[in-house]
Design goal:
Layout: H1 2-28, H2 36-58, H3 65-87
């Protein structure tokens, strides 16, 4: 089970990073963008570290405080969830 969780988190974080990079490129080319809702959903599904990395690496959405706050909230929630899953706290 732990291996499956690790694979899931790696995958969702790669997807989140990819979404931020893609959205940045679309913004530069004035193309149709990835909805902010999609970016937040990827973070709350476990991709917050990838989202935060994408924000920094691509310099994308870094001026929007609510992106920082929601991605950090998503990260905190998943850290708590991982702690519960890995240590079986009841």
């Amino acid at each position: 089970m732990a291996v499956g969780i690790i694979i899931y988190y790696i995958s969702i974080n790669v997807i989140s990073l990819f979404l931020y990079g893609t959205d940045k490129k679309k913004a530069e080319k004035h193309l149709r963008r990835i909805p902010e809702k999609t970016l937040f959903i990827s973070a709350f599904l476990g991709g917050a570290p990838g989202a935060l990395a994408g924000m920094e690496f691509f310099h994308h959405k870094t001026r929007k405080n609510y992106f920082w706050m929601l991605n950090i909230l998503a990260l905190a929630l998943h850290l708590i969830l991982m702690y519960i899953l890995l240590f079986r706290i009841s």
